[in-house]
């Protein structure tokens, strides 16, 4: 079985019930943190919402953002008006294998939650980059943190990993690419 658990990432795993329950629970957590425990303001939210809900059939979306804390994803999706608790619309995200997939329980949680394990330093042709390409070929939304790590510097991103660019270039249908910049999650 291992910690890869591709079967848990499938939409039909247990008729999708674990994914719906997990996305709803994590989405509710994100809403509470973003709206009740913090002051959140979002600029151009309608652009993201429209791309998530209404982009042309079969056209993938890649969103990219800076990475300020381990809770960026999911909290950054908790803002008012965003369909945070909809498992169908939820993003796929590249997640660090050494952090999110340490054991079977974490692996199951993150796979059900639409996370794709990525080995830091494993290069752009590693096994699960093909899974990310499959999601893009399905017309899905994929979020990436192209810095490849948490960086709490309040400065422009200086060094990006090649993975996101390789996904854009290798995707069978050219994805829509949406950059996102957020601040304050390190607090």
From TrEMBL:
SMART domains: PlsC
InterPro entries: Plipid/glycerol_acylTrfase (IPR002123), Tafazzin (IPR000872)
Transmembrane segments: none
GO terms, molecular function: O-acyltransferase activity
UniProt keyword terms in alphabetical order: Acyltransferase, Lipid metabolism, Membrane, Transferase
Assigned GO CC terms: membrane
Any Pfam family hit: Acyltransferase
GO BP term, example: phospholipid metabolic process
Compartmental location: Membrane
Domain Phospholipid/glycerol acyltransferase: 61-185
Keyword Acyltransferase: yes
Source taxon at top rank: Eukaryota
Family: Belongs to the taffazin family.
Name of the molecule in the record: Tafazzin family protein
Organism: Citrus sinensis
Lineage of source species: Eukaryota, Viridiplantae, Streptophyta, Embryophyta, Tracheophyta
